[in-house]
Write a structure and sequence with these properties.
The chain is of the alpha+beta class. About 25% of the residues lie in helices and about 25% in strands. The chain has seven helices and 18 strands.
């Protein structure tokens, strides 16, 4: 009896997904756990494995279709007889093979995902890896393509008013530009038009939605992290031997978790005419990758030590940069931290990652002259100092609470009050 493969739940907030590409054909024999199809969601891209060995008898949906969780994807007959062979691997030769043979070139999931982000046809890519496998470098080289195309002349048109922001909060706002219109784009020699990748479009839509939905307010703190730096220096070599990079981000995450327990409104979500105080503290950590920014989540972050947070941050960052995140890695965050890294400049206010009500952005850490008290007298010293910026949703977070929350993080970092 044939079995029907259905669209699984790919995360607690994922209700549907787009069919990326079929990795098998009708009439093809597949093995148990063999990837059947790639599913694209706003969280991550995932391959669905076959639950049983057998022959694919019917592909019920097409590439590009959007399907809901529980919808039928394909049928597999465990007792069926194969009528077609598996798609051939991508050839190492420079001449492209026929379209059918090139439908599923030898490329791991992370490479196929990178190709989709850069709109690269893997069937036209020559693999330089072992056995003709297509590598990330092959995809990136193909993405560069020939010389940049000159932008096509575009007629001067008046853009229509922007639509209302999608529902998702109590105060979803309508935006009308009124009489204002931006001037039409007139291409000039040397200009280059770059289409949005799928991830860039998702990021852009999210950022616009967040700014239209949440009235952002930003407050800043300047923090002397001398004591935290000394504590880190005491433990970083031992942590390194365990494969843990004991970064300042881990200490900021630990301080944030403690402050969130004491200021519960910062760990909330706006609903329709009310808001929910979330019990779990699931910390989103913004990570920059070649394909754009992603925010993997450390669940129950408040239950981890600084060392545990450092390990979790390192593991998630590695999964993000190698394209191995799954939808659940990106779902359920209740508060977000953004760390621009060594080239982050002084400070900056980040856009809130919805549906959170706050995001903390770290600034650069730089040695500065500070005034400290020594034996009852003020004196000058050179200490590492970091600026931080808290963006918060003024619909539910008042300035008093936001300032108290940020001050608590500042206080913990200045005291170096952490259990490693």
């Amino acid at each position: 009896m044939a079995i029907t493969v259905t669209m699984p739940a790919l995360g607690e907030s994922v209700t549907e997904g787009e069919i990326g590409e079929w990795l098998v054909k009708e009439g093809q024999r597949v093995e148990r756990d063999q990837p059947l199809v790639s599913i694209l969601t706003d969280k991550a891209d995932t391959e669905i494995p076959s639950p049983e060995g057998g022959v694919v008898t019917n592909l019920r949906v097409q590439a590009g279709d959007t399907v809901a969780v529980g919808a039928a994807l394909c049928d597999i007959d465990p007792a069926g007889q194969a009528t077609v062979s598996a798609p051939a691997a991508a050839p190492a030769a420079s001449e492209p093979e026929p379209a059918e043979a090139a439908a599923a070139p030898a490329a791991p999931p992370s490479v196929r995902k990178l190709a989709r982000e850069h709109d690269v046809d893997l069937g036209q890519v020559r693999g330089t890896g072992e056995g003709g496998r297509i590598t990330r470098d092959d995809v990136l080289k193909a993405a560069e393509g020939p010389a940049p195309r000159a932008p096509e002349p575009r007629p001067a048109v008046t853009p229509p008013p922007r639509p209302a922001a999608p529902a998702g909060g109590a105060t979803a706002m309508k935006f009308d530009s009124g009489a204002f219109r931006v001037p039409p784009y007139q291409p000039k020699p040397g200009d280059e038009v770059i289409p949005f990748s799928r991830r860039r479009r998702i990021i852009a839509d999210h950022m616009v939605y967040s700014k239209l939905t949440s009235p952002h307010v930003v407050t800043f703190a300047e923090t002397d992290i001398h004591r935290t730096s000394l504590l880190r220096d005491q433990h970083k070599n031992a942590a390194k031997k365990e494969g843990i990079n004991l970064t300042f981000l881990a200490f900021v995450a630990a301080a944030t978790c403690r402050a969130l327990r004491e200021h519960r409104v910062m760990n909330s979500r706006v609903l329709d005419g009310e808001f929910a105080l979330i019990k779990e503290i699931n910390l989103g950590i913004a990570v920059e990758t070649e394909e754009g920014l992603v925010v993997p989540v450390i669940r129950h972050a408040d239950e981890l030590s600084v060392r545990g947070l450092a390990r979790a941050i390192g593991d998630l960052a590695e999964k993000a940069r190698t394209g191995n995140l799954v939808p659940d890695d990106l779902a359920g965050k209740t508060f977000t931290i953004s760390n621009p890294g060594r080239k982050g400049n002084l400070v900056g206010g980040a856009i809130i990652s919805q549906p959170n009500v706050g995001i903390l952005r770290m600034g650069e850490i730089k040695k500065r002259v500070v005034v400290v008290e020594h034996e009852g007298a003020d004196t000058m010293a050179i200490h590492p100092v970091m600026f931080m910026a808290l963006s918060y949703d003024h619909r539910v977070v008042d300035g008093v609470v936001a300032n108290s929350f940020l001050y608590r993080i500042h206080e913990l970092l200045e005291a170096g009050d952490f259990a490693i």
